[in-house]
């Protein structure tokens, strides 16, 4: 007979307590295999695809895309024995017309609950938080859900746009939002659309021209990557005493070397950017000023010096700023560094960066020049001592051998934690990085 199991939202990284459901990869009635991806969620660190640990048939999805749920909350129910034989000799209140009815999800034995997936799992104790105003509470699994009529094939994959109060109204009135045409801005289903559908009234064939859109404001919930970034930056700004220094340099030799290397067979197909050169210069300069690659441990009363460089590379994504790490960047050649940075930033823009790839950085670089900015005062990532900003490279007048000539000029800015790095140390590190970019041949002396 059918055997039902619930799939709870797992903790995909240390310390996460909630996640937003982005989109489902399955629907009720779908048969799935072990480790098949069933849902994509967004945590405070990244978008993550979750696999199912069992094979069977999906019977119910408990949450909708856009809803934020706590770790440990059941998000779907499935039948892990859809082809099992029924036992007809025992008829009870749970059977109707000879057909066995599934037991409510709440009656699932504890030993049948999901075991933690490899690499992550829900914590034994979950910290409770106040329900969010912008997200309705997860719907409990109802016994009759297994006998509900299947969704219309033409609308089963369609996810309508509607605000949570409108979704609740539709649920209370028994209206399937997928069958309602939205007349709100951008096709959003409104309360009037739901009430019209409940009364059986058709939408007017000819509507009066919509009034001119009033200028006002819109509110977007602070969540996911954006919230995590904000919390980290506020903590850093008010914990570490920031100092920022600036340096303007002539990078014409670097740009000339870049063009030369593009023609070298080893760099064929490699996206060789100024960012890769700056990242390499940072790694080469760290041993001369190890304080910039350290961490302040206030609880232990110690400064932790790293013998490796896990270089964070700030990447702008549709979900906000993320900083994936290049592990052991100091051991990579220029071509290896360029390839790794390209792969990491591309993965970040797709929202697929694993949470583990954004942990334990030692120093960071951010390229504000890609947006046309000359310089900035970057905020240090928590747990690090310094961050370098690379500005735009522009053609500017420069004095060379007493004459003014056009050159490729760039500005660097270095923010550092003054608890760890003194002005002399910060200045020396910034000057070393600048010297390597102004004259790449200096690398042979490091």
Can you give a write-up of this model?
This protein is α+β, with helices and mostly antiparallel strands. 20% of the residues lie in helices and 23% in strands. The protein is built from seven helices and 21 strands. Strands 11, 14, 17, 18, 19, 20 and 21 form a seven-stranded mixed beta sheet that branches. A four-stranded antiparallel beta sheet has the order 1-8-6-3, with no helix packed on it. Strand 9 and strand 10 form a beta hairpin. The longest helix has 16 residues. The radius of gyration is 28 Å and the shape is elongated.
SS elements, strand count: 21
Structural class by helix and strand composition: alpha+beta
CATH domain topology of the largest domain: Chloramphenicol Acetyltransferase
N-to-C CA distance: 72 Å
Categorize the overall geometry: elongated
Helix % is: 10-25%
What's the CATH architecture name of the largest domain? 2-Layer Sandwich
Number of helices: 7
Average pLDDT confidence is 80
* Biggest sheet features: 7 strands, mixed
What count of structural domains? 3
């Amino acid at each position: 007979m059918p055997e039902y199991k619930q799939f709870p939202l797992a903790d995909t990284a240390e310390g996460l307590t909630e996640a937003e459901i982005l989109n489902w990869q399955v629907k009720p009635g779908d048969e799935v295999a072990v480790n098949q991806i069933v849902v994509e969620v967004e945590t405070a660190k990244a978008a993550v695809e979750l696999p199912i640990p069992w094979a069977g048939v999906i019977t119910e999805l408990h949450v909708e895309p856009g809803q934020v749920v706590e770790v440990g909350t059941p998000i779907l129910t499935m039948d892990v024995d859809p082809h099992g034989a029924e036992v007809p000799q025992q008829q009870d209140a749970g059977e109707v017309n000879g057909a066995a009815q599934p037991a409510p999800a709440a009656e699932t034995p504890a030993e049948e609950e999901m075991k933690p997936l490899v690499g992550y799992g829900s914590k034994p104790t979950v910290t409770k938080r106040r329900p969010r105003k912008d997200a309705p509470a997860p719907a409990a699994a109802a016994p009759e859900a297994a006998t509900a009529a299947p969704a219309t094939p033409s609308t089963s994959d369609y996810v309508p746009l509607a605000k949570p109060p409108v979704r609740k109204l539709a649920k209370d009135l028994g209206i399937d939002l997928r069958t309602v045409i939205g007349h709100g801005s951008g096709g959003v289903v409104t309360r009037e659309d739901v009430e019209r559908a409940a009364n059986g009234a058709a939408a007017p064939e000819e509507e009066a021209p919509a009034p001119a859109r009033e200028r006002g404001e819109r509110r977007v919930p602070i969540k996911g990557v954006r919230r995590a970034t904000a919390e980290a930056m506020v903590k850093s700004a008010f914990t570490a005493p920031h100092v920022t220094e600036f340096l303007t340099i002539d990078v014409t030799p670097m740009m000339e070397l870049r063009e030369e290397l593009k023609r070298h067979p080893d760099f064929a197909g490699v996206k060789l950017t100024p960012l890769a050169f700056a990242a390499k210069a940072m790694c080469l300069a760290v041993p001369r000023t190890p304080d910039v690659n350290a961490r302040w441990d206030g609880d232990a009363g110690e400064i932790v010096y790293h013998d490796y460089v896990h270089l964070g590379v700030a990447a702008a994504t549709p979900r906000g700023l993320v900083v994936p790490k290049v592990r052991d960047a100091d051991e990579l050649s220029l071509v290896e560094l360029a390839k790794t940075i390209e792969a990491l930033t591309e993965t970040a823009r797709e929202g697929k960066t694993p949470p583990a790839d954004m942990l334990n950085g030692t120093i960071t670089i951010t390229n504000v020049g890609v947006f046309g900015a000359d310089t900035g005062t970057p905020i240090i990532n928590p747990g690090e001592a310094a961050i370098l900003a690379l500005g735009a490279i522009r053609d500017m007048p420069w004095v060379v051998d007493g004459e003014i000539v056009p050159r490729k000029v760039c500005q660097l800015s270095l923010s550092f934690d003054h608890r760890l790095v003194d002005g002399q140390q910060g200045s020396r590190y910034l000057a070393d990085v600048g010297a390597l970019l102004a004259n790449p041949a200096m690398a042979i002396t490091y």
